[in-house]
Amino acid sequence: MLDRILKFASFDLAIDLGTANTIVHVPNRGIVLDEPSVVAIETINGVRRVKAVGDEAKLMVGRTPACIEVIRPLKDGVIADIEVAEVMIKHFIGKVFGRRHFRRAPEVVICVPSGATSVESRAIRDAASNAGARAVHLIFEPMAAAIGAGLPIAEPIGSMVVDVGGGTTEIAVISLSGLAYTASVRVGGDKMDDAIVSYVRRKHNLLIGDTTAERIKKEAGVARRPVEEHGKTLNIRGRDLVNGVPDEITINQMQIAEALSEPVGAILEGVRIAFENTAPELAADILDEGIVLTGGGALLSGLDAAISEATGLSVMVADDPLTCVARGTLLALEKEQFRIFTH
Fold first, then answer.
1. CATH class, range 189-261
2. What predicted TM-score, i.e. pTM, was given to this entire model?
3. Residue 77: exposure state from Cβ atoms within 10 A (0-12, 13-18, ≥19)
């Protein structure tokens, strides 16, 4: 019984509010929620109501009638629809704590892109506060990613982290618990999906949805051309734009690499620019320590090798890169490292 009480005695939580997925981490319980940042809204006789949130809403993407709209309240890592974002955050907090009533609301730490404006940051604060949070702290995503990856952020040593998320790629050089350089490149998993949709439409006259594009990226996505002639092949289905009927084609990894060349190139360019703006001493440290890759995009096959080839440095993918930001956000809260929070 005591274990059960202690299990729900912690009120504070860390939220990785991502464009593609939201991850909630609670002290002593670990990651308690990992669901798509998606909300389905149903409109009947002019009245809007929430139909589904998270996993249930994601299943509805591309399959809804006219009365149901599937909304992703975050775009490029920041809130685009604050009302829907509030609904989503409140739903996730309620799902974590259930129907229990507490004497005090949770204190929340949420990560934001390093390039977020004051207006965008305020929107995130307001959404979390309106969702029931007692206090809201914001932390920059690359800082959270570096903490979650176990980098020595407090030391006088330059560490470089590249966090490839759904909406943005955060590139940062960190030293003495501060961001010596940071850039938020608005390219991530979503842009990769869009690139695949555009390529298949242009080369094969086949229209596919975002869900199919995401499946292609996860199952056969590559950042560089495969060593083998064509690499792995994948059958995909969509609508033939010439005849207007459903059709199926086969696509290979050589073609997928070509489709992803533009977003991958943008990430490589962002890393190159980061080095141009990094102090020589810090650059020398990074030469010794290498670059750490985090985020869901780090799972794209060959991305670490592509960055290594472009920079001549060693590139390491962090352990469990998908949850790096969430883990780092929670550690910042637990250790009360408020100096590294945004203001």
1. alpha beta
2. 0.87
3. buried
